[in-house]
């Protein structure tokens, strides 16, 4: 399960003007925001919880069964809205009063809701104590000095590798570094060339190598914000957004150096899949890795289930590729938000407090669905994967090391949607990197005005 898929993939609807919705101002009849069910001679308050992931929904149902055993007067209904419809439906249901009492969101989607008064102040109703959570998962949901979400799950970035392919090529996946233009200190480019083969068995960079007949790729350079280019930007010393603001700031010498390196891996050195393919299918690199056709796959724990279930070869997880400023991983989290228009605030707050606890997140952890945000629940997640002989410690190390924030801001999704096509064209090689970044930054910032 990916906490954000691709940050810019969907949520422009949130930027189209959600009106303020204070408690009691939403719609009435037919609302999913709250209800009371009569069960026999006793009344049970029903709280609704919405998310987009089926696997996580199964874990939450188990969690809420445990909650109800301690709180028999409250029943929690879990509703799944698929990712493709989730972000379009969210603002419509907020406006109509039909939104769930509690719902999932990501860090790029909560700010507009908070600004418009659509959310419960989590610091007020649950508490501001971040000690129970991985700190970075909570700070993502702070705005104007208040906490607006209960952190649920998180992910960071590491490097999946095909053991037989890297051993055959003599590549050490644990010590890969990149430098602008493949300069001093760069080991990734040479490794990726050794790991890329054409149909005749020739490697990238060798005489006679035919990029059009490639049967094996070295590394997944592509327009993937979370797993690839946010990290490369940070490792080059560039910023994605300005400090203490929402404006984009990636059009800089460091930003050009980072993106030029990534684009060259695709179009100059031919060690990564074609952007014509990855632009159309964001999961192509993962699928190629599972098929044994991609040697190095930088991604997050959201890729673990697909790899574990489908790869028929030995694989491992190494630290992410390091850059001029070391390793810098994006840490992103999903949070549970409280609907300010809920008609059953007391029951909703009880459920939010449960979701903020170790007991509330144990089912997520023990099922291997996702890494829980509550620190004390994480050992269950580790144990799940340990039983499958998978060491997930590199993801934890990445989160504890030098990290980068996920995109934030009330209109950041509108901005990322605006520049998305330009970034894809840059990876295709149809627009020079410097020109593309200037254009993309202008497009993104204009869309956020």
From TrEMBL:
<dbReference type="InterPro" id="IPR050490">
    <property type="entry name" value="Bact_solute-bd_prot1"/>
</dbReference>
<protein>
    <submittedName>
        <fullName>Multiple sugar transport system substrate-binding protein</fullName>
    </submittedName>
</protein>
<keyword id="KW-0732">Signal</keyword>
<keyword id="KW-0762">Sugar transport</keyword>
<dbReference type="InterPro" id="IPR006059">
    <property type="entry name" value="SBP"/>
</dbReference>
<feature type="signal peptide">
    <location>
        <begin position="1"/>
        <end position="20"/>
    </location>
</feature>
<dbReference type="GO" id="GO:0030313">
    <property type="term" value="C:cell envelope"/>
</dbReference>
<keyword id="KW-0813">Transport</keyword>
<comment type="similarity">
    <text>Belongs to the bacterial solute-binding protein 1 family.</text>
</comment>
<dbReference type="Pfam" id="PF01547">
    <property type="entry name" value="SBP_bac_1"/>
</dbReference>
